[in-house]
Amino acid sequence: MYTLHTGHVVTPLTGVDDLLDLPGGGVVVDRSDGTVEAVGKASDLRKAYPDATVADHGDRLIVPGFVDCHVHYPQLGMIASPGEELLDWLDRYTFPAEARFADEAWAQTRARLFTDQLIAHGVTTACVFSTVHKGSADALFRAAHDRNLRIITGKTCMDRNAPDELLDTPDSAVADSLDLLERWHGVGRLEYAVSPRFAPTSSDAQLRALGELAAAHPDVVIQTHLAENLGECRWVAELFPDAADYTDVYDAAGLVRRRAVFGHAVHLSDRETGRLAEAHASLAHCPTSNSFLGSGLFPLHDTAFAGGDDLRIGLGSDVGAGTSLSPLTTAGEAYKVSRLLGSPLSVAELLRLSTLGGAEALGVADSVGSLEVGKDADLVVLDPASSPVLEQRAEQCTTTAELLFALMILGDDRAVSAVAVAGDTVDRAA
Ligand SMILES: [Zn+2]
Predict the structure, then answer these.
(1) Mean pLDDT on 114-132
(2) Cα-to-centroid distance, 71 and ligand 1 (Å)
(3) Which terminus of the chain has a smaller tally of CB atoms within 10 A, N or C?
(4) Is the pLDDT of residue 430 over 60?
(5) Shortest CA distance to 279 belongs to which of 202, 330, 226?
């Protein structure tokens, strides 16, 4: 019934700034309910759980399953498409890729590939955009349920400024969202997210209809994009001349609240940051995407300071504008962005953003984000010897922080040697 994973345990802890850093540590997983039973010294846990199946990971790192707060599963096929800013990039690459998801068989194939790749990259919780097609969200829910991943998703809603084949209406967006919500929200580890793509592709009528839907279901997530790119911000000001600012467009529609997760938020005014904090909303910082599309540098420390504890911030890969599904790569890029801004993130901050911070941003920190007793047993084993350059660097690291940092700068999915998803181990070492 129990599996004891032994290795070098590193995890953030709820309510504590410092990481738990436990070489020679262990995590006991209760396979009967998929939760963490105990965390401590491996030698103590071997005595306390003599009948446990032991998975000895040597001196590899055992960290919590990673949390991706913002990613588009239909865009995996056009990751690394070059040379355009956001609005051109959407027209040229994204919309044609998303149009293919009208085909449900295609959606199912891509959903299986995407969820397998999440696990391969150590991601066990994610907030994900589908396409406008109800079948695309259905396919992702099914694939995630089969793998027992903690996935929050919903049908993307857009009723203007996109190709006709990708448009819904205010009424059909609500009807399709509600149907999916009723069938999937709360099933296993799945949750629904009301998902207007962003203000330029939703009419005010659609945003308000989705706000009413969200008001009727106060426990669901809301996800959208906010202030990613300056051209987009100017367009929103033209489309919504009565709004005080971009955030106010969503606020007026009832879409700014706790568990509303706004992707990017690179170009916010002080008023917007204050209002988002007041509403206990969340932000997803997507550094590889922001760099790739030239959208800007998200001032994480400034925003976190202005928002205080009421404004939660996690990391998002934002694939396909983002360039990697790997939370290690995303954390490494977040470091570089913070360095360019002159306010570098620490290794402890980066690991927290990738795990517990993201879980807090999504409102699921009671269940995931850290290796603590009673939480879902989502864990990732990281192998610092997974590539020759990383291995020789790791051999010269003298602290856990240096080792984790090297993994973030040099590591990717090759560094993920095993993953436990709600206690079930997926061995990657073969
Ligand atoms: Zn996005």
Answers:
(1) 98
(2) 6
(3) C
(4) no
(5) 226
